[in-house]
Amino acid sequence: MSYFCCHFYAKSFQTSTPLGLFFITPIFVQFISILLFYKKNLKVDVSIIVTFHLVYGAFFTQFGVDNLWNTDAFSWCIIFGGALSLVLLRKKKYMIAHCSCYFVGAITFYFNNNKIGNDEYSNLPHLIGVFLFYPALNFYLNNLKKNLKEKKTIAEDLSQNLEKQVKSKTAELEIEKIGMENLMTAIFIQKESRDQLLNNLGQGYLIFDNEGIVQEGASKVTQELFECDFVDYELEKVKVWDVLFDDKNDKESFIKWCNIIWTEKIPFKDIKELGPKEFHGSLGKFIELDFRPIYFENNKIEKVILIASDKTKQRKLEIQLEKDKEESDFIKLCIENPVDFIDLMNDSLEFFKDYFLMEKDQSSKGHIFRIFHTYKARYGQFKQKTTVDYFNKIEDVIEKEDFKAVDSYVEGLERHLRKTFKKHKNLIAGCTKMLVAEGSAINTIELFNKLDTFESLDDLKFYIKKNYVLQDIKKQFIKYEFLITNLSKKYSKDILFQIEGDEIMVEVQKYFGLINGIIHIFRNMVEHGIEDQEERTKKGKSKEGVIKLSFEDKGESFIIMVSDDGRGIDAEKIKEKAIKKGFISSEDVGQWDPSKIIDLVFLPGFSTKEEVTEISGRGIGMDVVKIEVEKIKGTLSIRTKVGEGTTFVMTLPKIV
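Below the sequence we write its predicted structure tokens.
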């Protein structure tokens, strides 16, 4: 730097002093400094070297330049020297060098006997400006340099830390990778074990979320039970209701059920009971469904597990057990009631002959319906569920007035009954022998042996009529004790059945329509009339209800009274139901007395029930009883009192 200053000033300002004198010193100092720096033996701070050069330059400009130009040379020395040292020296060291340069310049100017002239005045602003501006610029550059250095240090630290973290994280990831691989292997083994276990258990497990989307993980058994490939389903996000149902209404009902689950307004254990219980596929299997919730940590339902169990074998066994029990009950009932069974069989077969000759149209619809409804009740007495189902289907199509379908179902029913009778031919033969033993059938051997004792044909007729035709009609109703006992168990009621009164000897065959039709009264009394035990206790009644059948001989006629000690018939409820169903208008019934209103129960199609069940609710029954009473020129009336009970009074002629 000193060399550069000496050379520049000597050439610019035409100095007369030999240049070599001034060049040798800075070159020598520079050479020694470089040598010592190279050998790493120089311990002196670089600021001293810089200060030496600046001071030497200031000294040279006073002694090495003509007096005319010495101040100009000094100004340029300050400007260039200061500019070069701006980035080399820090704040304090720069100020030392800067001030030393000014100080040396001023001292040499004074000792050189220089006087202040125009060039000193003209350079004064430069000198003052440099003296003030360069330190400020040095401060700024040093601060900038310091900040950059700090940032560089931070960056280097971050870089080193980042490198360490990368290495550390890489090592951790490698460890985690190894652990994950081991974990995935363990999970795979566990999944395989679980799938094997579930497959061996024969149960299917399907998980779905609040949107109904089937989740991953369905086992092979699950796919077999639901007859689908869940691999495709999982990719397509198939909904669980599309797996379970084909019918649109079933899907909509299930979706509503699912929505209720996630509102959690109803406990899951309660809403579960309203869900589907079975899956019906195309393979005829019986798949039982169960649902279990999966909860979040906050006890909110996250997902639902659908558990499917193949109960086909179990169901078949249950069905077979039901059939066996039905068969056993049927045989038992036939043996206990041989007369009713033989009569029912003969009546059925005779009816089928007449049915296909009957005119079937809208006008005969009610008559045909009543016949089938009564036969259904009679076969229900003998626990013939399959036969009762046939009658239910026939009643359905009669209501739709589809008489071609009725004929088809009746043909099927006839084939079914003939097959049933053929299957039980030994039972029928046994029942026939029992009829003979009980005197309910003509003993041909006994009759043949007595033929010689009869003096005339009239005597023979009288003997047959007295011993085989005329019977106590009261005995024909004993069979209903079993019916009432079974119905009372079904409705959780305790009912005592009583038969009392006079012996009424008549041709019972003439009363079979009424005897069979009275079954509808008994059913209504058990289902509607008698209260349950809790209700009876609240009313101060005994827990055991009573249905009583009484007979009273009036000479040319007799009275049958069927009574219960139940709720009684409420005329107001009968009126409301009759108006609601359109049997009468409110204007017509306004002036009726209660007994006339109660007689509305005999209207065809009238029923107080909202639902149709296997045995009641179609409004057929009480009208059957009235029709059968009127057929034999009798009368029927009702006596009732709300809260105390009801009595049906039938006044009938004796047919002998």
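The chain has 26 helices and eleven strands.
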